[in-house]
Design a protein that fits this description.
Strand content: under 5%
Radius of gyration: 21 Å
Number of helices: 4
Distance between the termini: 37 Å
Oligomer: single chain
Helix content: over 70%
Number of strands: 0
Length: 110
């Protein structure tokens, strides 16, 4: 089923409005002259590591450590990401390096 031009325009406008709302609401709720609640500060410090841990679990959910390559590409890539990030403290380098290593390992190890 294809969408008409009007439907595409409506979808783009709805997505743009959704992005704008999510970007502007924090500035409306927490202006510069108002102190941020302790709960929000706590969530801001706790949620990023929790989300990363959730993503790691999600990415490894279908890895079979008992057959095939025994999860070797995944384990080596995770170690490379951790090592690169510890060494350079650059998220983009860590993610790119780990992804490239993973693709190479998949090609050669399977």
């Amino acid at each position: 089923m294809t969408m008409s031009t009007v439907q595409v325009i409506i979808m783009i406008l709805a997505l743009a409005a959704g992005v704008m709302v999510t970007r502007f609401v924090p500035f409306v709720l927490f202006p510069e002259n108002r102190q941020v609640p302790k709960t929000v500060e706590y969530l801001g410090s706790v949620l990023p590591p929790a989300v990363i841990a959730l993503l790691v679990v999600y990415c490894l959910r279908n890895v079979d450590f008992l057959h095939g390559s025994f999860g070797l590409p995944e384990i080596l890539s995770i170690l490379a990401i951790c090592g690169l990030h510890t060494w350079k403290r650059n998220s983009l380098l860590s993610i790119a390096g780990g992804t490239i290593l993973y693709m190479i390992l998949l090609h050669f190890i399977g």
